[in-house]
Amino acid sequence: MQICDMNSIFLFSVISYLGAGGWSPLNSDQHQWLQIDLRDRMEISGVATQGIHGSPDWVTNYLLMFSDTGSGWKQYHQEDGISTIPGNSNADNIVHYKLLHTIRTRFLRFVPIDWNSEGRIGMRVEVYGCAYKSDVADFDGRSSLLYRFNQKSMSTVKDVISLKFKSLHSDGVLVHGEGQRGDYITLELNQGTLALHINLGLASSHTLVTIGSLLDDQHWHSVLIERFNKQVNFTIDKYTQHFRIKGDCDSLDVDYELSFGGIPLPGKPGTFLRKNFHGCIENLYYNGVNIIDLAKRRKPQIYTGNVTFSCTDPQITPVTFTSSTSSYLLLPIESQADGFSIRFQVRTWNRDGFLFYTQLYQESEHLLLFFSHGKLKLTYQKSLFEKTEMTTGSNLNDGLWHTVSLSTQGLQVTLQLNNDVPSTMVTKTQLISFAYYFGVLVSVWCPSNIKDLKCKNPTLAFQGCMRLIFIVNQPVNLILVQQGLIGNFSDLQIDLCAIQDRCQPNFCEHGGQCSQSWNTFYCECSGTGYTGVTCHNSVYEPSCEAYSHSETTSGHFLIDSDGSGPLGPTLVYCDMTEDKVWTVLNHNNTEMTWVQGSSLEYPYSMQFSYSLTQEQLQALVARAEHCEQEIIYRCWRSRLLNARDGTPFSWWIGRTGERQTYWSGSLPGVLQCACGLDENCIDMNYFCNCDLISILFKHFRILLIYGFDFSGNFWNAASFNKDTTYLHFSTFQAELSAHISFYFKTTVGSGVFLENLGVKDFIRIELISSQEVMFSFDVGNGPVNLSVKSPVPFNDKQWHFVNVERNVKQASLQVDKLPIVFQDASGEGHIRLQLNSQLFVGGTASRKKGFLGCIRSLTLNGVTLDLEEQAKLTSGVQPGCPGHCSSYGSLCHNGGKCTEKYNGYTCDCSNSAYMGPFCTKEVSVIFEAGSSMTYTFQESFLSSQNESEQFSAIFTEKNKPRNNITFSFLTTHTPAMLFFATMDLQEYMAIILSKSGYLQIWYRLKKQKETGVLSAGSINLANGQLHRIKIKVKGKHLYVQVNNADNPLVFLSIILSDRPSLDSQVMTAGARGFIGCLSSVQINQITPLKEVLYQSGSTRVLVSGRLRQSSCGSASLDDLKTISTVHSVSGNIPMQESIHSITFSTFCYITALFQNGLNSFFSSEFYTQHPIMTT
């Protein structure tokens, strides 16, 4: 096989490199080109250029175009779709350019784009390549080739089909074969794409795969199909799709023959009603057999049906409108008294664009034809304010060729799209035209003198391709237009359709739907779980640990374990415990399963399936710091191990696929249960209790390596102590998409976070000043810099978050919650970030200043780097980073205290009335009638010598005690006792709801016979809603805050009264007690509800009746209605007597003694209403 490269045969030269002269056109503009005829089709591997010897004339950039016929050109594109090729920087140096993919052609064009500004266009060129031979067949849309097998049926498990084709037609069958039992294979063009149908015998195994687009461009396209069993590689040009055929069969059974170019007998069972192929096929091979060569030599196994063996190329001249503002084509015509007609074909990706305009005989009349929202619209403009319109078609911006016909006859205008039924409109006068504009709307439509009337063009200029333009049934010779002999034009590419499919390949990730316009593409990410211009960024957190730091509580969440990687999100249960965050996955068998009759010959097998793929499960395990899975095995006369010959009766298989025989507490290969190792089995003649037949029932806990605690990745950190040290990792693979995120904290003002270099490309993130972070990269088009400036310094020893992304459409940089900075990618240029060095973290290979400080949770395209492990191997870098509470301490709420850990922090809620990871989970109980809870302080808290003095001190300036009481409640019952405190039987303090639901604070002092009352507002708080009460005592000032009122009530004095009715109100409230929900009670550092609910056996707690743990925040009025009604109290019982008789079983009763002031009136007991029934 001949290899065609730059060392191959020299094909052509325009003036020797050593001689003078060359090609230099008279006019130096972008309408010039140098065309070369190689006399036959050749395989081109490279070109070389020079300027004109001894002159200032050279070309700096040029286009390379090729054609088989000298018309209908195609533009050569480099990788990434770049069309321009770099030329020369002086007149005499030789610049070679090796084509990435060889091209097979006869004609070449060099089209100068830029040249030396101080000279003219000047070129000397050479072309390199090889001779190219091929076998070609021409199909006319009715012909085909039949390849007959030597036997009746051909059954294959491996097939290779290769061919090249070109066509102007968008539909047609290229290959077809079928069998009697339903097998078939069909390769066809369908609307300009290539479709492969395969079925291996069963109706349910039909598989359809499509690839490519715009294949009806009359240029050669290479096809390769490789099948082995059910695995298929399907290639068109340089794009390959791998897929697996549905069904269980592996062989393809085809009867009698394969057909190429069409299906000769339509209607045969299993066949498709499809058009035959119209175009040329070359080098057609089926499993190594040259089909066209056999046909040319008229071999008997080939039937030739009206096929010729040379390629006929129709002479069609397309034109490309390149600009959305200035492209146009002007064609003058002779006046037609009886009307006019035009017809053309058009293809585009744009939904809007002006197609055709003509001014009619009357100066104020115009006829406009344009695309609007993907539909074809015709407007007859009689005057500025009078018009008639009609619309036809839809989705015409699909990239396919559409035929448009417009004609006038008398007063009738007819518009037809493709082969649809024509649409008509009637005008008042006969329409006569003199000139046609294609592609842009001339200024006469919106003259400058009527701008005040808000005149505007109906749409943008047309961007796309046209061909086969007919005026009054006569074809327009666009080559004459190009030569300036007829008409006029601007910003056109004549004899070329330069449309590109920007969705091939599809840069939308994770199943995003690609759509496009002429210049760019768009990704629709709805329903994918990802976001961003290419659907790259996951909308879900990578772990339950990450969710926990957004202050969420336990529940079901979608997590994306590899972030922007290929794996999709997974639904898990996040268990936010006090010390760890667990990720829980459920499987398909959580119920007890009874097994009977199992034997070695017929063992019982149980499969555990999870609601995620094996790849997702492996990713979760890989990211987890600790994993476990618990299976309970209960035995009844069912042995686990066989002590006689060592063959176990049971085993399990984990993710490695290997059989394991050890159980919880044992080791692999030991063949003993935990009791055997600990020597505490019931009968030491057996190494497992299950092996002892006399044991009727026993259970074992089996621990497998699956389960999830992800805190390690979130807190994985390294501390950089010298600006000359760094960590290094393997090259960052991010050609088309790079997503990097990390946290940092520092005390210095500059330093490089990370850097990765290529030959010319690079990517870098750095702190360039104390208030600016910069993201820089170069993909071959020149450096791009994005920076975020902060109004406050970044070197404040606090954690800061950096998130950068770069893809083929744009780049972005975000720091903390500052505004995101975006930079769009250039429309023309390199798109691949090609790196080859190691990735440096905390330092740089380019000798820039390294980083001093901490970097944490560094994630690249969904993979979190293990900074700690690498830091252990690197001098000057320490694993981990202390000081998390400086940044995250604010997440510990309600008095919780932040406590440092090696890999993060925890919130200590011991001095808070709340619980949970962030001390935000309310501790609540529901009180029913007859229920109570008493809290008694330790004796050491009492001070018997001056109890009364301390209790009285809350209303004096002496000692100025400071005390706080907070709690929340929800009720609909009044009156109610919310809070009661007593020093002894002579004095007390009570917080009650009056009969009207108002909050009141009652008290009686030992040295005073009068009873005092403070009224905190006149709002009914017994309305079934949750209310938060905060009481603060400082000296003789008492502050009461209800809910989140901005201005708490302040009491500077007290109301005293000797009316007995006041005490009776407290007595009534006490008798009725409290029926409702009480939450988050805290008296200074004392949290009674937490002790009664979570400290069983506490001697300070006495519970009477039934308390139910609940959540006041989620309780409803219906919950309150289920609570029993209160007991009735008759007679006028003095409060002192009710205390002595222990009638506090129906209300909240607190007695305590604190060190001074308000603390003193709390003696020894606290009542709240709810025991210990946790849900």
From TrEMBL:
Membrane topology: Single-pass type I membrane protein
Coiled coil segments of this chain: none
Annotated Fibrinogen C-terminal domain residues: 535-587
All residue ranges annotated as the EGF-like domain in the record: 499-536, 882-920
Disulphide-bonded residues: 854-881
Keyword line: Disulfide bond, EGF-like domain, Membrane, Repeat, Signal, Transmembrane, Transmembrane helix
Signal peptide stretch: 1-21
Predominant place of localization: membrane
One Pfam family here: Laminin_G_2
Domain F5/8 type C: 1-130
Gene Ontology CC annotations of this record: membrane
Keyword Cell membrane in record: no
Stretches assigned to the Laminin G domain: 136-311, 318-497, 716-881, 938-1112
Top-rank lineage group of the source organism: Eukaryota
InterPro entries (UniProt xref): ConA-like_dom_sf (IPR013320), EGF (IPR000742), FA58C (IPR000421), Fibrinogen-like_C (IPR036056), Fibrinogen_a/b/g_C_dom (IPR002181), Galactose-bd-like_sf (IPR008979), Laminin_G (IPR001791), Neurexin-related_CASP (IPR050372)
Cellular localization per UniProt: Membrane
Annotated family: Belongs to the neurexin family.
Its job: May play a role in the correct development and proper functioning of the peripheral and central nervous system and be involved in cell adhesion and intercellular communication.
Protein name: Contactin associated protein-like 5a
